[in-house]
Write a structure and sequence with these properties.
The chain is built from 12 helices and 7 strands. The protein is of the alpha+beta class. Among the domains are: 79 residues, no CATH class; 93 residues, Chitinase A, domain 3, CATH 3.10.50. Strands 3, 4, 5, 6 and 7 form a 5-stranded antiparallel beta sheet that branches. Strands 1-2 form a two-stranded antiparallel sheet.
């Protein structure tokens, strides 16, 4: 195991080493106990990371995201240890909040089991909801579906443009390290000008549908843009575009219904009383007619 004292001058080397250890451990079959970072006697291990970060986030994380999490953990641990040393662990405010937090967590876990937070929504239900609620999926402003590549400089962008004109796809160019690409957007979703921001929004909305732009400078990078489709304000989003949103709406509605049913069952078998007058008297309040 490798331990380093966390001093200001050694943070960068620690994070770089942590990333190498972490990436190696994630690919290891033996799952050894690997310490990523340490603050005094407190340690952050691979197992801690997997317990604290959702799998869908951790599985898609790159080195920079993991380093940011390690940095966040380190700062939190430094503050926690300082507060403990000053006696805040026995502060009555901490105890009250800890009790409330534990109560909320117990309720959350109970509801996850009782209400089944992932109900199955059928394709028929999605289609029916879409047909009956199309007006709620109307675009308030024009939106564009575009493929975008960001480059570190203009020469790399020009070289990539030549490859695209020769028949290579955006996806093929995006994974070729020779082009110096710093970011990509190949999502099959529509964006409004506001979502894209002033510089990029102006660049994207200035490209004609079906054409490939010349390298355009946006902030400190250069971009290539290909507009796949454009939809004007007032048009209705397709069912494919909004199916995830529909599932979320239906899931939320079903969750609310099941919660109401659960509370109704609990009320039928539990003695419950409310005395608003006593509460107002104790607080010196006034009962309104």
């Amino acid at each position: 195991m490798i331990f380093q004292k966390l001093t200001r001058g050694r943070l960068v080397s620690l994070f770089a080493l942590a990333a190498l250890i972490l990436l190696g451990a994630c690919s290891s079959q033996s799952e050894p106990v690997v310490v990523i970072a340490q603050v005094s006697d407190a340690t952050l291990t691979i197992e801690d990371l997997r317990n604290q970060v959702p799998d869908q986030v951790l599985n898609g994380a790159g080195q920079q995201e993991l380093l940011e999490y390690v940095n966040q953990w380190m700062r939190s641990e430094l503050l926690y240890q300082a507060a403990q040393d000053m006696g805040y662990g026995s502060d009555s405010r901490v105890e009250r909040r800890a009790k409330q937090t534990r109560r909320d967590i117990i309720i959350d876990v109970f509801l996850e089991d009782e209400l089944d937070m992932r109900p199955y929504i059928s394709d028929r239900e999605i289609s029916s909801y879409y047909q009956n609620n199309q007006t709620s999926f109307t675009r308030a402003e024009a939106e564009i579906l575009a493929e975008i590549l960001w480059f570190e400089d203009a020469p790399h962008a020009a070289m990539a443009r030549g490859a695209l004109n020769d028949g290579r796809t955006f996806s093929e160019v995006a994974v070729d390290s020779a082009f110096g690409i710093v970011a990509t957007n190949l999502e099959s979703r529509y964006f409004s000008r506001i979502e894209l921001g002033d510089g990029l929004g102006d660049a994207v909305f200035g490209v004609r549908e079906g054409t490939l732009s010349r390298p355009v400078q946006v902030d400190d990078s250069y971009v290539l843009i290909q507009v796949v489709d454009r939809q004007e304000a007032g048009s209705v989003r397709s069912m494919a575009e909004v199916s995830d949103e529909i599932v979320m709406r239906l899931t939320s509605d079903l969750w609310d219904m099941k919660l109401d049913e659960l509370l109704s069952r609990l009320l039928d078998h539990t003695d419950v009383s409310i005395n608003i007058e006593a509460g107002l008297d104790a607080l010196g309040g006034e009962i309104l007619p």
